[in-house]
Amino acid sequence: MGVVEKIKEIEEEMARTQKNKATEYHLGLLKAKLARYRAQLLEPTTKSGPAGTGFDVQKSGDARVALIGFPSVGKSTLLSKTTHTASEAAAYEFTTLTAIPGVIEYKGARIQLLDLPGIVEGASQGRGRGRQVVSTAKTADLILIMLDATKSEEQRRLLEFELDAVGIRLNKTKPDIVFKKRTTGGITFNTTVKLTRTDEKTIRTILAGYKLHNCDVMIREDITTDEFIDVLIGTRKYIPCLYVYNKIDSISLELMDKLGRQPNTVVISCEMDLNLTYLIDRIWDDLRLVKIYTKKRGDHPDLSDPICLRKGATIEDVCNGIHRSLAPNFRYGLVWCGKSSKFSPHAQKVSLAHQVQDEDVVSSAFHGFHKMRFLTYNTLKSLPSDW
Ligand SMILES: Nc1nc2c(ncn2[C@@H]2O[C@H](COP(=O)(O)OP(=O)(O)OP(=O)(O)O)[C@@H](O)[C@H]2O)c(=O)[nH]1
Ligand SMILES: [K+]
Ligand SMILES: [Mg+2]
């Protein structure tokens, strides 16, 4: 009998078995068995892609959020609650076997939420399909580490370890190091701060270990040795992360309070609909999205369909958000910045590199492709009435 048939058999037996005190233990055993078989379905087969590549789900919308957690913490329940996509949720582990995308629509943004199979300890080492799951997390703009509030605190550390092992650095910014390889000239080493957690000798030893004999190193932050190696390797991903404790309906108020006070943490209950709106608001904030309204000359701004971009986005990104043919033909732009020039709101020429701000209104005038102009307004209120 194949694994699929065995799973079916157990599921049928579970459906037949009445739930009561006497059958509780037996049902527990069945659940464990079911989870074991379903985990087997997740084992990489010879047909699946090379280890270490993620699930092949097209990125869509303005940002991607990945759900990472142990089995049965409620990832699929969250997806079904916050998007129009239904992902099967059940009381046994490894219910979800692949990546399932849904879309959260919030404040004009379309945020792709990716439900993923549960991972187990050792996932980064290739246990089950875990490596594929953690690799998919690498493609996210924000990671939600989902935890079961009724389970031990150990979960949090274990998940962090698995993500760290595939090169994901959570809630960290890339260390401020300038590193340039050269072909000759030896090693030049400079720092702008006092190093207290590593030293020049260690760094030179590491460089020698990587056979880097000619390079410039400029360190502008009190980094650790590990952080230096991260920059040297260069493939690290620095991704913001939100810890989400689910099932707070099943814990004491004291514990809920304690969990919720940790940094970057939100406590929720999918089942009881507790705090879900707040969670989505936090996702929006942590993604650092900005919302840009477009406006045609002579028309009112189009408030129904803003362009959402990440904080730090430029006029060029706005162009690309409208059509890819725009940026290459760009000559100059005009910006009306209500905030930065409060007392003399003059329109100023800006380049493609100009950074837009949340709630900017961007107006593009097309006098043929070569005379296009962009006007951005800092707030809707600062729009002149004669436009
Ligand atoms: N008490 C309680 N149970 C919940 C809550 N959210 C989900 N559950 C239950 O937890 C179980 C697992 O939920 P799933 O959504 O399948 O969990 P998952 O993380 O997707 O699980 P896998 O796909 O197997 O990794 C189901 O029985 C849900 O009904 C909650 O807020 N409170
Ligand atoms: K489950
Ligand atoms: Mg699931």
From TrEMBL:
<dbReference type="InterPro" id="IPR012676">
    <property type="entry name" value="TGS-like"/>
</dbReference>
<dbReference type="GO" id="GO:0005525">
    <property type="term" value="F:GTP binding"/>
</dbReference>
<dbReference type="InterPro" id="IPR005225">
    <property type="entry name" value="Small_GTP-bd"/>
</dbReference>
<dbReference type="InterPro" id="IPR006073">
    <property type="entry name" value="GTP-bd"/>
</dbReference>
<feature type="domain" description="TGS">
    <location>
        <begin position="288"/>
        <end position="366"/>
    </location>
</feature>
<dbReference type="Pfam" id="PF02824">
    <property type="entry name" value="TGS"/>
</dbReference>
<dbReference type="InterPro" id="IPR027417">
    <property type="entry name" value="P-loop_NTPase"/>
</dbReference>
<dbReference type="Pfam" id="PF01926">
    <property type="entry name" value="MMR_HSR1"/>
</dbReference>
<protein>
    <submittedName>
        <fullName>Predicted protein</fullName>
    </submittedName>
</protein>
<dbReference type="InterPro" id="IPR012675">
    <property type="entry name" value="Beta-grasp_dom_sf"/>
</dbReference>
<dbReference type="GO" id="GO:0003924">
    <property type="term" value="F:GTPase activity"/>
</dbReference>
<dbReference type="InterPro" id="IPR045001">
    <property type="entry name" value="DRG"/>
</dbReference>
<dbReference type="InterPro" id="IPR004095">
    <property type="entry name" value="TGS"/>
</dbReference>
<keyword id="KW-0342">GTP-binding</keyword>
<dbReference type="Pfam" id="PF16897">
    <property type="entry name" value="MMR_HSR1_Xtn"/>
</dbReference>
<dbReference type="InterPro" id="IPR031662">
    <property type="entry name" value="GTP-binding_2"/>
</dbReference>
<dbReference type="InterPro" id="IPR006074">
    <property type="entry name" value="GTP1-OBG_CS"/>
</dbReference>
<keyword id="KW-0547">Nucleotide-binding</keyword>
<dbReference type="GO" id="GO:1903833">
    <property type="term" value="P:positive regulation of cellular response to amino acid starvation"/>
</dbReference>
<feature type="domain" description="OBG-type G">
    <location>
        <begin position="63"/>
        <end position="288"/>
    </location>
</feature>
<dbReference type="InterPro" id="IPR031167">
    <property type="entry name" value="G_OBG"/>
</dbReference>
